[in-house]
Amino acid sequence: MEFVKLNAAPRVANGKGGARRVRKDGRIPAVAYGQSLKNMPISVDPSALVKNLQGPNGLNTVMQLDVEGGQKELLVMLRELTHHPITRKFLHADFVQVKLDEDVDVEVPFITTGKPIGITQGGVLRQIYRKLPLRCRPEAIPASVTADITGLELGHAMKAHDLSLPVGVSVRLPAEQSIVSIVAPEKEEVEEVVPGAAGAVPAAGAAAAPAAGAAAAPAKAAGAAAAPAAAAKAEAKPAAKKK
Questions:
Q1: Structural domain containing residue 162
Q2: Domain final position from 32, 65, 97
Q3: Judging by DSSP bridges, how do beta strands 62-67 and 4-10 pair with one another?
Q4: Cβ contact 41:10 at 8 Å
Q5: Has residue 46 been placed in a domain?
Q6: Residue 158: CB atoms within 10 Å
Q7: DSSP calls for 25-47
Q8: What is the pTM of this model?
Q9: Residue 205 lies in a domain
Q10: How many CB atoms lie within 10 A of CB 126?
Q11: Which of 105, 121, 161, 180 is most exposed by smallest CB count within 10 Å?
Q12: pLDDT, tens digit, for every residue of 184-195?
C-alpha cells in the first residue's frame, strides 16, 4: 500500500536558536520517535504537511517520512502540532512511528444517517459520541464510521456492539456502551404562585413595608401611653406634700 510522502531534513542544531533558524528558512522543527526509534530531530515543510493532512483521513493520515541521508520507508503519524497563539503559525511537530504489523489507536468521526422512528414518536436524538476510538492496522484506518439509525425507536439506544466495522477494525469501548440514543424531551416544570394563596411568598419590598409600619405603630402606642403615665405621676407628688 502506498502512503503519502513527507520529505524531512535532519536537524543538527538544537535549542531555541536552532529552532529560530529553521523557521527563518520557512520550515518548522520536528521530532520523530517510536518504541524502536530513537528521538530523531528533523525539520519539515509546513505547507507540505498541511497538504497531506487535508486528505480523507485528516490527522489520522499515515505518512512515509523520507529523511535526507536517513532511514527509508519510515512510516509515521502526526502526534502533535503546535502553533503560535497569536500569529497561528506552526512552531513544532511531533511524529510517532507506526508499523504495518502493529495496531494503532485512533479516533475517527462518527456519522449517523436516516431519520429515526423515535423522532416521529416525539423523541430527541442524543449522539453520545461524535468520534469513536478505534484500533486497527495503519493501512486499515477508516476515514469515518457511518451508522444507519432509521430503526431506532424512542427509549432505545445503539450500542457499541451494533456497529458495522471493516474487517480488522475494532472499537475501544465496552460492548454495551451506548453511542447514540433516542430520549424523551426534557420538560421544564414551572410552578405558578397565586398571590394570596397559602405558601405564597410576597415580594421583598411588600414584606418590608408592613413590617416596618407594624414596628413603628407599637412604638408610637408605647410613647402615647408613657406620656399620660408621667403626667399622672407628676400630679401625685404635690398632693402628697399638702398632707
A1: 104-183
A2: 97
A3: parallel
A4: yes
A5: yes
A6: 21
A7: TT-EEEEEEETTEEEEEEEE-HH
A8: 0.72
A9: no
A10: 11
A11: 105
A12: 998 754 444 444
At 96, the amino acid letter reads V
Closest CA to 106 of 73, 143, 150, 156: 143
Q: For cell 415580594, what's the residue?
A: 203
Helix (H) or strand (E) holding 20: helix 15-24
Scanning the structure block, which residue is given the C-alpha cell 502493529? 102
DSSP 61: -
Cell output for 241: 406634700
- What whole-number distance in Å separates Cα of residue 227 and Cα of residue 219? 13
Q: Which three cell numbers stand for residue 125?
A: 436524538
Please write the tens of the pLDDT for every residue from 23-76: 999 999 999 999 889 899 999 999 999 999 999 999 999 999 999 887 667 999
Secondary structure (DSSP) of 131-186 = EEEEEE-GGG--S-EEEE-TTPPTT-EEEGGG----TT-EESS-TT-EEEEEEPPP
